From TrEMBL:
It holds the Pfam family Rep_fac_C. GO terms for cellular component: DNA replication factor C complex; nucleus. Belongs to the activator 1 small subunits family. GO terms for molecular function: ATP binding; ATP hydrolysis activity; DNA binding; DNA clamp loader activity. GO terms for biological process: DNA repair; DNA-templated DNA replication. SMART domains: AAA. This is P-loop containing nucleoside triphosphate hydrolase protein. Gene3D superfamilies: 1.10.8.60, 1.20.272.10, P-loop containing nucleotide triphosphate hydrolases. Residues 38-162 form the AAA+ ATPase domain. Keywords: ATP-binding, DNA replication, Hydrolase, Nucleotide-binding, Nucleus. InterPro entries: AAA+_ATPase, ATPase_AAA_core, DNA_pol3_clamp-load_cplx_C, DNA_Rep/Repair_Clamp_Loader, P-loop_NTPase, Rep_factorC_C, RFC_lid.
Length: 332
């Protein structure tokens, strides 16, 4: 595939360890283990888009150079989560002879938290059998979904979401390389949308660049991503503080329509806005509990209309108890 045809997230994926400053503690530790010949099996886990796969690939390039293809096997467990991939591809690769390299071979298994339990137990046995010449790097979002027998055989590294500053620098670098003009407020909006997921941020940046014929501004980001503008949230809060229950429900429905028809997508933004306000502890607890209950109910497939009415009723009920006077002061 031509370089210009690649998605930006692949085109600008860091290829060297020097470009991975945000996860330098991982690379520094593992490279020290490599230099001493004491490299253990590895478990990289953390939220999506935090550089887990990129880090191990950059380390493999650093260690193997031109022999990267011969010494590494990369698999995505979500492509085939059954037992067959464990018994065939991994076993075949781990058992093959190393003709001209005395180092460890490396198996990179991405999204291994999606593997079935049977596949994970089979992988444990393969790790035990070929540990003399092969090292495994398991990658997943949730360490809790990986069986304890595998976790205990690996050195674990947690990848935290990218910081605001690191995300800002990465997006600015990509925008400059792609000759895209973007405002600081637009970058801030992308970072808020991505929540530390740099892959998500990069994809949104590319989408905004394709949809805009001029400079990318925050209005472009709001339009492309479906994010609510701060003014939309403020308008909703004014309604729940002053209007009748029927009008509050109508206001919720109007904001949901702005957010591509999903109440679940506006709950986090509403929660963030409420968290910024100086609320009494009791008020904050009741409101967050109502938001959490609605979000859980929606995830279980409950009626969105019913949850919208429930949220509206919760706000109106608290207002009637004179518990939101401080919010009225903040909104004035």
């Amino acid at each position: 595939m031509a370089q210009n045809a690649l998605p930006w997230v692949e085109k600008h994926r860091p290829a060297s360890l020097s470009a991975l400053s945000e996860q330098s503690y991982v690379t520094d530790t593992v490279l020290k283990l490599v230099s001493t010949g004491l490299l253990p099996h590895l478990l990289f886990y953390g939220p999506p888009g935090t550089g887990k796969t990129t880090t191990i690939l950059a380390m493999a390039r650093h260690c193997y150079g031109a022999q990267l293809g011969e010494m590494t096997l990369e698999l995505n467990a979500s492509d085939d989560r059954g037992i067959s991939v464990i018994r065939s591809e991994i076993q075949s690769f781990a058992a093959s002879q190393r003709l001209f390299n005395a180092g460890y071979k490396l198996v990179i298994l991405d999204e291994c938290d999606n593997m079935t339990k049977d596949a994970q137990f089979a992988l444990r046995r393969i790790i035990e059998k070929y540990t003399r010449h092969t090292r495994f790097c398991l990658i997943g979002n949730y360490a809790s979904k990986i069986i304890p027998a595998l976790q205990s055989r690996c050195m674990k590294f947690r990848f935290a979401p990218f910081s605001t500053q690191a995300s800002k620098e990465a997006l600015a670098t990509i925008a400059k390389a792609e000759h895209v003009s973007i405002t600081d407020s637009a970058i801030s909006a992308i970072i808020k949308y991505a929540c530390g997921d740099l892959r998500r941020a990069c994809n949104l940046l590319q989408s905004c660049a394709l949809s805009s014929s001029s400079d990318i501004e925050d209005t472009t980001v709001f339009s492309v991503s479906g994010m609510l503008r701060p003014s939309d949230i403020d308008a909703l809060l004014r309604s729940v503080l002053n209007d009748s229950l029927d009008n509050v429900i109508t206001a919720f429905a109007a904001v949901v329509n702005l957010r591509n028809g999903s109440l679940a997508n506006i709950i986090p933004e509403l929660q963030d806005r409420l968290f910024e306000m100086h609320l009494p502890a009791g008020t904050r607890g009741i409101l967050f509990r109502a938001l959490a209950d609605a979000e859980m109910s929606l995830s279980l497939g409950c009626s969105e209309k019913l949850q919208t009415r429930s949220l509206g009723a919760a706000f109106v009920s608290i207002r009637r108890e004179n518990m939101l006077m401080s919010i009225n002061a903040n909104m004035s």
